[in-house]
Amino acid sequence: MTKILLRDKLDDCLTRWHAAGFDVVGPVRKNNISQYATVKKAGELDLGIILPDRTLKDLFFPQTEPMFSYRISKQKIDTEEYLPPGRQRIIFGARACDASAMAIDDPLFGWDYQDTYWFKRRNETVIVTIACTAADEFCMCTSLKLAPDSTQGSDILLRPLGDNRGWQVEELTDRGREAFSRIEALLEESPAQTAALADVPIKFDLDLCREWLQNPENFESHFWKEISMRCIGCGTCTFLCPTCHCFDFQDEGDTYTGIRRKNWDSCSFALFTMHTSGRNPRSTQSARWRQRIMHKFNYFPGKFNLNSCSGCGRCTRECPVDMGIIETLQEITKLSQ
Amino acid sequence: MSIQEQYRKKAAELLSSGEVKLVIGYGSGSTPDRRRALFARTADDAALFHVDAACDANLSGYLVNEGLLSDKKKIGIFLKPEGIRSVNILAAESQLDPDQIVILGFTEENGTVSGLQGTQASDFTSLMTALKENRTTSEKEQALVDKIEAMTPQERFAFWQAEFEKCIKCYACRQVCPMCYCKRCIVDNNQPQWVHTSSHTLGNFEWNLVRAFHLSGRCVECGGCDRACPVNIPLRLINRRMANEVLDAFDHFSGMNQNQEPVLASFKKDDPETFIL
Amino acid sequence: MSKPFEPKIVAFVCTYCTYAGADLAGTSRLKYPPNIRMVRLPCTGRISPMFILKALQKGADGVLVSGCHPGDCHFTHGNYHARRRWTVFRALLNFTGIPLERIRFSWISAAEGVKFAELISSLTEDIRKLGPFEQYKAMIHETEAPVSL
């Protein structure tokens, strides 16, 4: 006997969570795009989406974020700091890859300096993940040694029932338990069986890839030029990546008054590494693509013992020129066999 | 022989005879319905080319990749009529020498592809004239344009605001566009910084206006930006509207030939001026 | 009580004609509303659509672009180029919902002080009737406020 949450109780759950001061966020399809958005009623949620177009990172690390405003006068400099507003949130219906991505970025945002913006939102958010029973041809969590029911980054894991009437509840953290205590009365004890998880075939050998990437001889390999020839240098893969976390500061305003913002930046952009002198250490697109792959699968694991990829596959799914991590790592797997 | 076989053979001949150093075409993609750019350097590579209805990208943007044409050697490229128009514009704007481009032209209608006669951009002049005369819009697209045109300014503003709000400034629309070849885009300039680089709605709105303006009279409506946009902003509607404007006001159809004067770098003394007080 | 709405209008003008026309209006003691902020440029050919966007970004309720009559350009054809550019940019603004009443274009020569004063008066009244450009101002406001995430 395990605890289950029935689909038709969702509206009541939302009412209770709202009453307890939580905002509820979940996958929503609106205006020709799907993303995690705040909802008032359960009916607004689209839990059938295999994976929303936009990632969960948007909710913790928005594409543009004001940090502080400044006003410079002859006598002094006034600043006003902006912090996230501090709303308790429940993300209902995250996917395991998206939730894992948050756990991947936690050490990054906290290793030398605690990123206030990231951790304030992380600490105020409960992530309720629903395990996947369907996948598409770009899903690759298993290749990253994750799974459709990975628990990393999640506070609650819901496993869909075989009859699609609801979900089996697995409480993973205290924060998750606290949020679910608010709906304790709506949960049931049931022996119902869970549905089969999505079958996500393994697409490349991660260990072989890491080995190949670590070999300094391969840094200047002609492979990088060949594989990235059609890359156009846009930011689609990085901006739709749940783990990509690079940002840039931008002062909006003038010398005397304005706002400093933290904006997403992408290693695919030619300007990313451009020096003021005009020199660009990564002057070709192949060097930029190599950096992206090296960072995710060599440097990041070297530092944090984690791959900076959770296998959501959005980079390949959305790439305007049909590139992406899958093809590159498949080719590297072949090269190292 | 199917068109695909013919063109594979043609590409292989071009490569093995040494007439071209490279052929840019379409290869298999990561799923059966996807095609991706394929760069063939040998006759063997040419056997991997596809020519079918799934070949939708306008590959001409790759021609202006830094240094690709600087050795004066020729390059073969698979192009649809819009791609040929792009080559004409790039030639007219002195970005490439059209003599270096060997075109393997094809066109697609209702899912069937057929070959186009000619190998030089200048061989397709009559095709361009026909395209100008027979400009068509899909019913669905026309319905949407009509809907937008019928709105009040406030409603139109709200419509585009909701669309541009989605923009994440990944610049896929710019990067995929053959006409966006600037070494440094105006939005990446910060001295002076005309438009916001931040991806808030205002910054997105400004960016999309600037992009559309810079493509006015230059866009060939290949639809690349629209397909590339990861957040599905209907960019083709704006481009279409601007193309209509230059056609109606100045009888300008972009990319007719390689000597065409850019519409915003030329004028007629009797250009219409209905709105100037 | 809140202050009555006073439109802010930015005028980008050519120094050889409209600016001189404004001078003439001044020396002729012609009255026109003080809602206009003039930016003097060497030629209408120098006026980039970026200027118009910048004016809106900084909170303008209206923009005027004005230069020499066709045929009178100090540089022979700067205004012909400008005319094409405006035709296209105006269509774009219209299609994206920026009311054309707010973005105006005119030819005013150095001799047309009266036309200048009358145009500024009617433009100011028109925009006063339209009210502040609330839709654009809402976007500007969003850039100045912290995110609500």
Automatic annotation (TrEMBL), chain C:
| Keywords, alphabetical | Iron, Iron-sulfur, Metal-binding, Oxidoreductase
Record carries keyword Ribosomal protein? no
Instruction: List the InterPro entries hit by this protein, alphabetically.
Output: MvhD/FlpD
Q: Which Pfam families match?
A: FlpD
- The lineage's top-level taxon is Bacteria
Q: Which residues form the F420-non-reducing hydrogenase iron-sulfur subunit D domain?
A: 9-131
UniProt GO molecular function: iron-sulfur cluster binding; metal ion binding; oxidoreductase activity
Task: Report the protein name in the record.
Answer: Heterodisulfide reductase subunit MvhD
Q: Which organism is it from?
A: Chlorobium limicola
Q: Please name the taxonomic classification of the source.
A: Bacteria, Pseudomonadati, Chlorobiota, Chlorobiia, Chlorobiales
